[in-house]
């Protein structure tokens, strides 16, 4: 009976660790998926000198599901990915002049200055 009582916490610990491992694998997959979507979105905007309507139309396509547009400012828009622990999620900063896209920069949530490793290069039009 005592052996059963001692093994119960070990079994619970193994289950908790297994669930945690699966969760972190899922988060890693999700992070890669959204970063790839943001890189593809940036490439699509780079192909043509896009305007504000093109940004909205492109973002409404199913392949970019999950990316969120924030138009808080008339000159600087953000397209964000889901939050990551440590504010490491990528966001695309779109500088808008008039109705045209003037610049594209990928940054992280906590740094407007540094381009994250693996992110597309900055583009200025």
For this entry, give a set of tags.
125 residues; alpha+beta; 5-stranded antiparallel sheet; 5 strands; 43% helix
Notes on the protein architecture:
The protein is of the alpha+beta class and 125 residues long. It has one domain (2-124). Helices cover 43% and strands 22% of the residues. The chain has 2 helices and 5 strands. The chain has a 5-stranded antiparallel sheet with strand order 1-2-3-4-5, covered by helices on one side. The longest helix has 46 residues, at 2-47.
The number of helical elements comes to: 2
- Helix fraction, binned, reads 40-55%
Task: Kindly state the number of beta strands.
Answer: 5
Largest sheet: 5 strands, antiparallel
- The N- to C-terminal Cα distance equals 74 Å
* Total number of domains: 1
Order of helices and strands: HHEEEEE
Quick check: average pLDDT?
87
What structural category characterises the helix and strand content? alpha+beta
Q: Strand order, biggest sheet?
A: 1-2-3-4-5
Overall shape: it is elongated
> Strand fraction band?
15-25%
* C-alpha Rg (nearest Å): 20 Å
Parts with pLDDT < 50 across at least 5 consecutive residues: none
Structure described in brief:
The chain is built from two helices and five strands. With 125 residues, the protein is an alpha+beta fold. The termini are far apart.
Map the helices and strands:
Blueprint (H helix, E strand, L loop, with lengths): L1 H46 L4 H8 L8 E3 L5 E5 L9 E8 L2 E9 L14 E2 L1
Antiparallel strand pairs: 1-2, 2-3, 3-4, 4-5
């Amino acid at each position: 009976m005592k052996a059963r009582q001692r093994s119960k916490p070990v079994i619970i610990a193994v289950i908790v660790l297994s669930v945690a491992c699966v969760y972190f694998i899922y988060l890693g997959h999700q992070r890669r998926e959204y970063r790839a979507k943001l890189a593809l979105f940036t490439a699509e905007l780079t192909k043509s000198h896009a305007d504000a309507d093109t940004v909205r139309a492109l973002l409404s396509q199913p392949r970019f599901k999950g990316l969120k547009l924030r138009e808080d400012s008339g000159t600087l828009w953000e397209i964000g990915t889901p939050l990551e622990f440590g504010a490491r999620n990528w966001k695309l900063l779109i500088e808008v002049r008039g109705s045209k896209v003037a610049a594209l920069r990928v940054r992280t949530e906590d740094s407007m200055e540094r381009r994250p490793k693996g992110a597309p290069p900055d583009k200025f039009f």
